[in-house]
Amino acid sequence: MLSELGRPATTPELAERLALHPNGVRRQLGVLREAGLVVQRQVRRSQGRPHDEWAVAPGANPGGERPTGYQALAGWLAGAVPITRSRLHEVESAGREIGRDLGAGAGGPPERAIEDVLSALGFQPELEGPANGRLGCRLGNCPYRDSAQDNREVVCTLHRGVMQGILDRVSADAVLTRFVPHDPATAGCEIEIEGLVVEA
Fold first, then answer.
1. Closest Cα to residue 7, out of 159, 166, 191, 141?
2. Per residue in 80-130, pLDDT tens?
């Protein structure tokens, strides 16, 4: 459910979506937290007591396997796009729109929002920083590795656009200054962001 939402959620929200009692959901979330699949945070509200929020853990391996993302559909679409400069520009623009949608529900400090969105997508991000408005990130998994191996330039161009769209939402002044794809089988893609407005 957290992966589908693409953002953190509270226990009551998850219970409502799953049509289960919050106490039972809270117990199950505790088990998932102990297994390293989700992380728990306390979030302050303008009024009342803080509430618990749950998010996909950055290094989560649901079912013991690295996350994958809609393999067949992604492969078909990637293979259908010819690699020309104009088509790649269109792919990146489409990715940016997707990223804006993904980033729309992300909250909290920009670096956390970026981590939450990338974690929910299955990239297993490892963040470095932020320091002086700069945030580095190495991706521990490529959830689109099968499609990327078939048409790497298209898939990686789409992902670059997605990153730019996420930044549009979470930190308007931030600029994607580095995006270095690696072999999708081993991941390790490098991202660098500058101009990130970090909350004091």
1. 166
2. 777 888 889 999 999 999 999 998 878 788 899 999 999 999 999 999 988
pTM for the model stands at: 0.70
Q: What are the CA-CA distances from residue 77 to residues 28, 71, 72, 141, 152 (Å)?
A: 36, 10, 9, 20, 12
Closest CA to 62 of 4, 115, 136: 4
The span from the CA of 14 to the CA of 22, in Å, is 8
Angle at 101 between CA 97 and CA 105, to 5 degrees: 155
Q: How many angstroms separate the first and last alpha carbons of the chain?
A: 32
Asked whether the beta carbons of 93 and 39 are under 8 A apart, the reply is: no
Phi-psi region of 132 (alpha: psi -120 to 50; beta: other; left: phi over 0): left
Enumerate domains of the chain plus CATH numbers: 2-57 (1.10.10.10), 64-194 (3.30.1380.20)
Q: Which alpha helices (DSSP H) does 43-151 contain, by range?
A: 71-80, 85-104, 110-121, 145-150
